[in-house]
Task: structure prediction
Amino acid sequence: MAQFLDIPSSDLSLQPGPLLEPPPAEALPFPDLKRHPAVQEAAAAVDEIRARERALARSYFPRFHLQGTTYARGTGFRNDGATGGGLAGLGPNIQNWAFGMTVTFPLFDLPSLRARREIEAHRERAQAALQAQILRDLQAQEEKAAATLEGARLIADNMPFRLEAARAAEQQAAARYKAGLGNIVEVAEAERLLTQSEIDDSLARLNIWRAMLAVSSAEGDLAPFLQKAGR
Result:
């Protein structure tokens, strides 16, 4: 975390919060994977290609351009050939205007436009196949994460029984040692098994949180997990 945030590790402190406790038993919601950011990105790429196809399909249509202009000039000559005074023609006293229309038709561009449209059609099919592949991969990740979550919950449910059995075995070994019926090796082994069971119990609870995070990550939305982890 310090590496990602580019800060000294001494500035960080551990706050486990609810992660050391069993997570809630209710299942995380399973949203529509079509709303996953990766799927939406692929869908946007398909829409972009389709937009280029539509633009190419309209490129062969005739184009009409309306043109117009207006202008004025200054002159001292009149229609009858007479001239004005010395200041005549300094201002624009003769106005005129023009209006027209131009039609263009890309007759010789048809072969190239057909080739470009065919290229875009192949790109669209390739991108649509990629989008479908991304969706299938996400579905597989979601199912795998959900199965891992279910397995982690089953393991965590069995850990209290293992922990209780390890505690009973440790107490029995200590009692046998105090009564002179056992040796210190048996006590040490029982304590080792008890410590290992306590570690496994904590890891089992933590693995449920990890599996829940994997489910949220596969669905592309970490909000449900963060809400439960930050309660």
User: Anything to note?
Assistant: The longest strand covers residues 63-73. The chain has a mean pLDDT of 82. Residues 170 and 190 are 5 Å apart (CA to CA). The radius of gyration is 40 Å.
